[in-house]
Specification:
By secondary structure, the chain is mostly helical. Helix content is about 65%, strand content about 5%. The protein has 4 domains: about 5-100, Winged helix-like DNA-binding domain superfamily/Winged helix DNA-binding domain (Arc Repressor Mutant, subunit A, Orthogonal Bundle), CATH 1.10.10.10; about 105-145; about 150-205, Arc Repressor Mutant, subunit A, CATH 1.10.10; about 205-253, Arc Repressor Mutant, subunit A. It has a 3-stranded antiparallel beta sheet with strand order 1-2-3.
Length: about 250
Amino acid sequence: MKIEKYTKLKSNRYEVLIDGLKVKLYDDVIVKYELLRKKEIDEELFEEITKYNDKLEAYYKALRYLTKKLRTEKEIEDYLRVDYTQKTVDETIDRLKKNGYLNKDIYLKCYLADQINLSNNGPKKIKNSLIKLGYSEEELDERLDSISEEIWLDKIRNSVKKMIAQNKSLSSNKLKEKILYQLSMNGFYKRMIEEVIEESEFKNTDDILVKEYEKAKNKLSKKYDGYELENKILAKLVAKGFYYDDVKRVMNK
């Protein structure tokens, strides 16, 4: 196989014309096999060169992927497996580990710090996310158990304060239900959420109810009156989480 021409490309690569076939090779490959000194190569050497070039390509691709943010071994494997054989993927991961680019403890420490400081996620949701990234339950339980419960309670308190401020038209009962549901979905333990709800200060339901009654009456009275208006107001306020008897009491006033 005759080496006919070299063309310099970006990213430390050359386009090499071999028997009319254009092959993109890294300069590391050209140096390793001393191709600049050769005019011809056999098919066996050509196959060896292309395999080695694929390994380099996978390694450099993984490095570029890692420069955007820290990755787990599973993320790297899933990323590379699209284009490379399992053997090449395994060799690439081994090389990354050897060169210090893949460290499970460092990744876990950084991930937890980001989740605690920059997200609204609780321990259950964080744990599930890390399991999908290749961590075992045992190693996660040990690390999560070492985090002070007060840290999770403070996160819940901040969320509860925001939800109280953002839901001024809901009854206390409806708002408590909403808080419990939302924070449970975010991965916090029910026991902790209920503890924070118990210690939090909610607006007096009657004050909110009177305000919402006036708003509903002003709006609905443009279309309804009499008994129908009362029923429409009652239905609207009950839907917002106010108790039927409380609504009737305010309406009777």
